[in-house]
C-alpha cells in the first residue's frame, strides 16, 4: 500500500485533540452568517459512528450558538448539553 506520508499514523495518534470534537467557526458576526466545520474524534471512524454524531446534527439544524465568535472550540457533551471552550481565536 502506497502512502504519501509514511508518518501519517504517528502524526494522527500524537495529536492531543484526537479524542475531542473540535468546531471551527468562521465568518463575521453581524455581517456575514457564521459557518462551521466539525472535526470528530478518531474513535467515531469505527463503525461509521461519525455519521450519527449528535453534535453534527445539532449544528446542521441550529447552526453555531450565538455566544461563539470565529475561532476553534473544543465541544464536550455534558448533562446539560454541549459546552464549548475556546482553543484558539481566529482574527
Describe the overall structure:
- The protein has 91 residues and is an alpha+beta fold.
- It has one domain.
- The chain contains two helices and four strands.
- Strands 2-1-3-4 form a four-stranded antiparallel β-sheet, covered by helices on one side.
- The longest helix has 9 residues.
- It is globular and about 50 Å long.
- It starts with 7 loop residues before the first helix and ends with a strand.
**Can you list the strand order of the major beta sheet?**
2-1-3-4
Succession of helices and strands: HEEHEE
Largest sheet: 4 strands, antiparallel
Q: Provide the number of structural domains.
A: 1
Mean pLDDT over the residues: 87
**Strands, total number:** 4
Architecture blueprint of SSEs:
Elements: H1 8-13, E1 21-26, E2 35-39, H2 54-62, E3 71-78, E4 81-89
Antiparallel strand pairs: 1-2, 1-3, 3-4
Write out key terms for the chains shown.
single chain, 91 residues, alpha+beta, 4-stranded antiparallel sheet, 2 helices, 4 strands, 16% helix
Brief digest:
The protein has 91 residues and is an alpha+beta fold.
Amino acid at each position: 500500500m502506497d502512502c504519501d506520508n509514511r508518518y501519517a499514523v504517528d502524526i494522527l495518534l500524537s495529536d492531543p485533540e484526537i479524542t475531542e470534537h473540535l468546531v471551527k467557526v468562521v465568518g463575521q458576526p453581524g455581517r456575514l452568517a457564521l459557518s462551521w466545520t466539525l472535526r470528530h474524534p478518531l474513535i467515531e471512524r469505527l463503525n461509521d459512528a461519525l455519521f450519527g454524531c449528535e453534535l453534527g446534527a445539532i449544528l446542521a439544524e441550529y447552526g453555531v450558538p450565538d455566544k461563539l465568535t470565529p475561532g476553534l472550540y473544543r465541544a464536550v457533551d455534558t448533562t446539560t448539553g454541549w459546552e464549548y471552550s475556546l482553543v484558539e481565536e481566529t482574527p
